[in-house]
Amino acid sequence: MKPMGSIPADFRGGETLTIAGRSAEDWIGIAGCTPLFVYDMAVVARRISKLRAAMPPALAVHYAVKANPFRPLVEQIAPLVDGLDVASAGELALAQAVAPASPVSFAGPGKRDAELAAAITAGATINLESAGEAARALAAAEQLGIAPKLAIRVNPDFELRGSGMRMGGRASPFGVDAEQVPALVRQLQDAGADWRGFHIFAGSQALDAEAIIETQAQTVALAARLADAVGAAPPLVNLGGGFGIPYFPGEQPLDIGAIGAVLAEVLDRRAPSLASTRFALELGRWLVGEAGVYLTRIVDRKQSKGETFLVTDGGLHHQLAASGNFGTVVRRNYPLALANRLNAAADEVVNVVGCLCTPLDRLGDQVSLPRAEIGDVIAIFMAGAYGLSASPTAFLGHPAPVQILAGIPSNPNAIFTC
Ligand SMILES: *Cc1c(COP(=O)(O)O)cnc(C)c1O
What we know:
- The chain is of the alpha/beta class.
- It has helices spanning 9-12, 24-31, 41-54, 71-77, 89-98, 113-122, 131-144, 181-190, 209-230, 256-268, 285-288, and strands at 18-19, 22-23, 36-40, 60-64, 83-86, 104-106, 125-128, 149-155, 165-166, 176-177, 194-199, 203-204, 236-238, 278-283, 292-304, 307-312, 336-338, 348-353, 362-369, 377-380, 402-406, 413-415.
- 48% of the residues are buried.
- It binds pyridoxal-5'-phosphate.
């Protein structure tokens, strides 16, 4: 038997799985088929409130759309946050369509000229990833006759310790090396651009509050050094995010209260060169990850060489991360359960696999579950971030899953493909 992570508290109670007041089978009935993703907006809204309560009141909170770009979800989140962070022209178009009033920032390497032009026209802030990109953005702006809103993404000279995905402290496709930043800011100012400040994103999926606290303090200190070198206060410093969620056995939720308390002090004591600067956090995973459940039905149960396999109609083409093939080095089990016997005692150790013809398609490895039969539904938790949109949906040509946004006052908002 191998361990699995714990089911998020919002879904843990009860004999059968309930999401936003309805059973998993009810949601499947609404969808008309499996597999499907159900996202509980009430869970997301509660997390946003909890974050706001923990952080200094002046801190802006942005949603990183790439964590989950499901349109009804972005539409509901937009009014609850201070801005949307996008990483492509597609996400920019989505942000403009669902939340035209939301401030947008656009980060990510390899922005094409057309993407730069679209962002400038939309009035979005472009987080520049290189000097070359800066030159192309200025050229696009000149052609359009618009003063572009440009910030510089800084490749910091430190990294976020204990982060699942490190993005600083080394050679990087992301951001401009810190020592080259002051000269580039001057160049933007000389060209008549509206310089918006700095974006400093040092990592992702960190569960160590102390490491985040240390990184945020280093980030504010770096911003102050750069402001001194530039001789002007950055209007905004985007501190990045990196807040992780507990997927695996032994992991604990992040203590955001501790992070907020220290950040409040750090901002209170900040250097005079940052006196007029606003600060923002940009979070994806922490806001939406725990709010999503992937439901997939068992279509076969088989024995092979002494092991039991539960073969489902879902798989890594929808939920790559649960198979351990998205940004993890060692494969570990996401929390999963039988939807109709959520808290029943386990009777057997099984492998839960998907329907793809690849040994990579393992959703649960040697997990203990109550005895399951064909037709039972497996719920895989922690499916709200980097789920469907981070999965190879075209691989093997199965249909896309249904997605449903639950927990909103009106009827559930769904995109049907079955
Ligand atoms: C992906 C990304 C985020 C969101 O990261 P999470 O770990 O989901 O919070 C924030 N900012 C940038 C620049 C990103 O690329």
